[in-house]
Amino acid sequence: MNLYNLYGGKTKNKKMEQEIDTNELGESIVKVLKSIYDPEIPVDIYELGLIYDVMVNTDYEVKILMTLTSPNCPVAESLPREVEEKVKTIENIKDVDVEITFDPPWSKDLMSEEAKLELGML
């Protein structure tokens, strides 16, 4: 699967002969990711810093590289599945592959300023 970083601009889908605005698609994916919350922390997974990378190819297939707050996270099974299912609901998305990594391990430094403020860490 040839993947292109979502924020790389427009690419052309040879099969459908139409342009994909990857910036617009990226915004849609981020909007969905911001609707998914870690059940133990009242912050969405995007602001929490659990999403390391989002890529899309010209066939509307998405790959999401993400982590969890710890390898023993109680939602290790359900959270990646929720991410996959919700991103698949975006129009034109054909497939979603969610890969979990612990390299680098998650730390509070990965959280956005918004998340830190929400959790009273600023």
Q: Topology of this structure?
A:
Elements: E1 4-5, E2 10-13, E3 18-21, H1 22-33, E4 51-56, E5 61-66, H2 78-88, E6 95-100, H3 113-118
Parallel strand pairs: 5-6
Antiparallel strand pairs: 1-4, 2-3, 4-5
Protein name: MIP18 family-like domain-containing protein
Organism: Flavobacterium bizetiae
InterPro entries: Fe-S_Maturation_MIP18 (IPR052339), FSCA_dom_sf (IPR034904), MIP18-like (IPR002744), SUF_FeS_clus_asmbl-assoc (IPR014291)
Show unreliable segments: 7-17
CATH topology name: GMP Synthetase, Chain A, domain 3
CATH architecture: 2-Layer Sandwich
- Helix vs. strand class: alpha+beta
Largest sheet: 4 strands, mixed
CATH superfamily: Fe-S cluster assembly (FSCA)
Question: How many E-type strands?
Answer: 6
Which percent band covers the strand fraction?
Answer: 15-25%
Identify the overall geometry. Answer: globular
Strand order of the largest sheet: 1-4-5-6
State Rg: 15 Å
Q: Distance between the terminal alpha carbons, to the nearest Å?
A: 41 Å
CATH class division? Alpha Beta
Provide a count of the helices: 3
